[in-house]
Write a structure and sequence with these properties.
It is built from six helices and eight strands. The chain is of the alpha+beta class. The chain has a four-stranded antiparallel beta sheet with strand order 1-2-3-4. A four-stranded mixed beta sheet has the order 5-6-8-7. Strand 2 and strand 3 form a beta hairpin. Helix 3 runs parallel beside helix 4. The termini are far apart. The N terminus is likely disordered.
Length: 173
């Protein structure tokens, strides 16, 4: 079983994933000798074709924190259903104080989303979507809520197969 996990992780590193830095947070610890700074970086990786992952890295230097976050993100990959450059249906999700709502949009609309949500949606390969974040604007929770919403999307081909109808009829029927 361990070998199978190693193969999966190895194949995740073989994918051509693009990294996007979402946020860097500087934390200060006051000690007897003065202030000690450390950094937390949140990164989103994706192949812009339905695969996405996120990671959090903490270190004393920014570059080390980003490298750790990228390694973690490559271990947390999920497959997302993207249909004709948009999402198949409306979906919402909540994580902590952040709540997100994503809606499909017609071709040419673009990614109407802000900040952390935009990085996630562009990394997964969505080109046309309407998104709204409600509640907290904490980038950590926004990334997690957006990925949770994307992971709950149903594949239109599986829905059509289960219903015994064509994919076009699922959307226009």
């Amino acid at each position: 079983m361990l070998r199978m996990i190693d193969n999966r992780v190895k194949s995740a590193f073989d994918l051509e994933l693009k990294e996007r830095l979402v946020a860097i947070n500087r934390v200060t610890k006051v000690t007897k000798g003065g202030r000690t700074f450390s950094f937390a970086a949140i990164v989103v990786v994706g192949n812009e074709d339905g695969i996405i992952g996120w990671g959090l890295g903490k270190a004393a230097e920014v570059t080390t924190a980003i490298a750790k976050a990228i390694d973690t993100a490559k271990k947390n990959l999920i497959k997302v259903s993207v249909y004709r450059g948009t999402i198949p249906h409306e979906q919402s999700a909540k994580f902590g104080g952040a709540e997100v709502l994503i809606k499909p949009a017609s071709h040419g609309t673009g990614v109407k989303a802000g900040g952390a949500m935009r990085a996630v949606l562009e990394s997964v390969g969505v080109t046309d979507v309407l998104a709204k974040s409600k509640g907290s604007s904490n980038p950590h929770n926004l990334v997690k809520a957006t990925i949770m919403a994307l992971s709950e999307l149903r594949n239109p081909f599986m829905v059509a197969q289960n219903r015994g109808i064509s994919v076009e009829r699922v959307f226009h029927g």
